Amino acid sequence: MDEEMIPGPALAAPSEKLILIIEDDEILRGLLEVTAQQEGFQVATAYDGHEGAQKVAERAPDLIITDLMMPGKGGYEFLRDLQVTGHGAIPVLVISASLVNDSTVKLIRQEANVIEFIRKPLPMAALVARLHTVLKTQPPVRARTKGINDRHRGA
Question: Which residues constitute the domain of residue 33?
């Protein structure tokens, strides 16, 4: 008996989604920005929680990636401010290189809008997959290079 294929919801184009990256490390911020842009997303960046809050007030992003430990307003304070300012529904991926104990990670994951806590160094392929999953977007189609199994064999 053939089952009828039920199509799932259509995926959005990444170009319709804005990601805000809040990271004080300029190199990592740039890497995250380029990675998200290569996936087709719109990207805004901020150095710390203060600048991140300003960017959210200007235009609410569809997703936020924030470092936890930053100068000025850190990630935890930024998360709390999102709740107070009415932006508590924006999904947030928290990243951190600091030695954060498991009870602190558990506390951060309990924040209403935190969907993931990822330790640095970041697994970029997993991060990209998570962005597309959370934002319900279609990853870009990339040309695949020929591998050893793709070569023509003589008859």
Answer: 14-139
